[in-house]
Design brief:
Length: 228
């Protein structure tokens, strides 16, 4: 809910590749996708996600324009989805959902199928349609759906080589992964494939890229590499 333009570079570094897509609370937010970018981490090393760009262009049906954030509340030990109430600085916010039953050891929030994302009806008046579920919402991307700590999951064993690379990147240390995506320095998706241990990059222009590996339980690992 924002009427002011805030330059994108104030919220994002030139390398922000972790994204979450959310579609839910249709009574207040309409049936539309909100794309959150990881804009940093907090003092507990939990990731912070904000809908970007913060420019007042994200329509929220009858309540104006929206800026949303997903963040960790360390005092209450829970993940929260909040809406800004003014100019996009999140100094004054409304709590839409909270989840304290997911894997709190993870640095990223749980999906809508793990733990319970509880609608904060004190704010929404029940207009979000109840707690988040796979039937009334989408919450995908850099989320987790496993009770295992990210530090102990299989995906932490993944490695890529060579780096720098000219033609082909090899992925080692894992057998089952959902997808592999490559992003350029502007955060644009330039290559996507189902999991394979070889990723052909010879067609990419020289530069710096990020390869993202997504596991079957929505855990993600990122590797920055240089294309020669």
């Amino acid at each position: 809910m924002n009427t002011k333009f805030i330059p994108l570079f104030l919220l994002m570094s030139s390398f922000v590749f972790s994204q979450i897509t959310f579609n839910g609370c249709h009574g207040l937010l309409d049936d539309q996708n909100f794309v959150f970018n990881n804009t940093g981490t907090d003092a507990q090393n939990k990731k912070i996600y904000i809908t970007t760009p913060v420019d007042g262009a994200q329509d929220c049906g009858g309540i104006g324009t929206c800026e949303l954030k997903i963040q960790w509340n360390n005092m209450l030990t829970r993940w929260e989805i909040i809406a800004d109430s003014g100019n996009g600085d999140f100094a004054s916010t409304f709590l839409l959902y909270y989840n304290s039953t997911g894997n709190n050891l993870a640095t990223n929030p749980p999906s809508n199928s793990f733990g319970t994302w509880v609608e904060n009806t004190a704010v929404t008046n029940g207009e979000c349609g109840g707690n988040l579920s796979t039937g009334n919402s989408v919450l995908t991307g850099d989320v987790h759906s496993s009770g295992l700590s990210v530090d102990h999951s299989t995906i932490t064993k993944i490695q890529i080589f060579p780096n720098p690379v000219a033609d082909v990147i090899t992925i080692s240390g894992v057998e089952q992964v959902n997808s592999v995506n490559v992003f350029n320095s502007n955060g644009q998706l330039v290559k996507s494939q189902n999991f394979g241990k070889k990723v052909i990059v010879k067609d990419l222009p020289p530069g710096v890229y990020v390869l993202k590996v997504m596991s079957s339980n929505s855990e993600m690992k990122e590797f920055k590499f240089i294309k020669k």
